[in-house]
Amino acid sequence: xxxxxxxxxxxxxxxxxxxxxxxxxxxxxxxxxxxxxxxxxxxxxxxxxxxxxxxxxxxxxxxxxxxxxxxxxxxxxxxxxxxxxxxxxxxxxxxxxxxxxxxxxxxxxxxxxxxxxxxxxxxxxxxxxxxxxxxxxxxxxxxxxxxxxxxxxxxxxxxxxxxxxxxxxxxxxxxxxxxxxxxxxxxxxxxxxxxxxxxxxxxxxxxxxxxxxxxxxxxxxxxxxxxxxxxxxxxxxxxxxxxxxxxxxxxxxxxxxxxxxxxxxxxxxxxxxxxxxxxxxxxxxxxxxxxxxxxxxxxxxxxxxxxxxxxxxxxxxxxxxxxxxxxxxxxxxxxxxxxxxxxxxxxxxxxxxxxxxxxxxxxxxxxx
Length: 368
Hints:
Layout: E1 6-11, H1 17-24, E2 30-36, H2 40-49, H3 57-62, E3 68-71, H4 75-87, E4 91-94, H5 102-115, E5 119-121, H6 129-139, E6 146-154, H7 174-178, H8 180-191, E7 194-202, E8 207-209, E9 219-221, E10 227-234, E11 239-245, E12 256-260, E13 263-267, E14 278-280, E15 287-289, H9 303-313, H10 324-343, E16 347-348
Parallel strand pairs: 1-2, 1-3, 3-4, 4-5, 6-11
Antiparallel strand pairs: 6-12, 7-10, 7-16, 8-9, 10-11, 12-13, 13-14, 14-15
């Protein structure tokens, strides 16, 4: 920690890492000092591209200039790497999900609390202009009290375009664990925590065939549900219908809509940082696209790490928005879909994180 900057080490130099490198360069509070990967060639390539230093994982964790580890490993390794970083005395910001299993997610939070360290987790897209605008509209009462909503992420899976699609159909991935965190985190940001879940899950195929050029014709076993549909009851009283699926060729639904006593709101794709945002009220009689009230419309990965850095430097006065408690809550909700389907019952959600506070208006680029 030097000159009001938090030294960052990135572990995992795969496809998503460059977006984190690029985003970190925007925020004056972050300084990436090293990167690591089990494939040292990948680490060296990213270090060269970004004027950083390639190290082994052990070297990075022993580096005294690294205060915060950004964990970009595969989901199955998230908890293990986060625990390793915490044991080394580093704060951790992890790619989603926080862990594959709830017990592992709890172990990460418990160790962080024991050591007085912060844990954060993607997605941080809700800190972008689109969902911060939605939050302001909801908080300012444009659609009244939110009573209901819908959230739809439906596609036919990634095997036609992703160079390594097998992972998406294994434990810890699938539509719910890979894409669901964006939608569920955005909803908790807008409405507060979830009270209970009622859901049905299924899978259309036991095997898929890759049609991407890299693995054309490869058989992909399907280990997880690929269609998850259910209802979320929030502590606020709102009820939201959610469908997350890799079994749909085409649909015409908005990503997220909220329905209130005074109108309705259309939110953007929560896997993005920008808009559009639209509101319908009885006075307008039609959907009206709203000007974005906040900054950060581009692919601003690392904004969650920057928010955590601000909390570290403030000594706790600044409340960390992309917190581990929020990520654990989302993980519990995701597991509840399959649990509800298997038992045929509502599943009560035990965790109850605080609703993330909105970003203030008028921020200077590069500051939160």
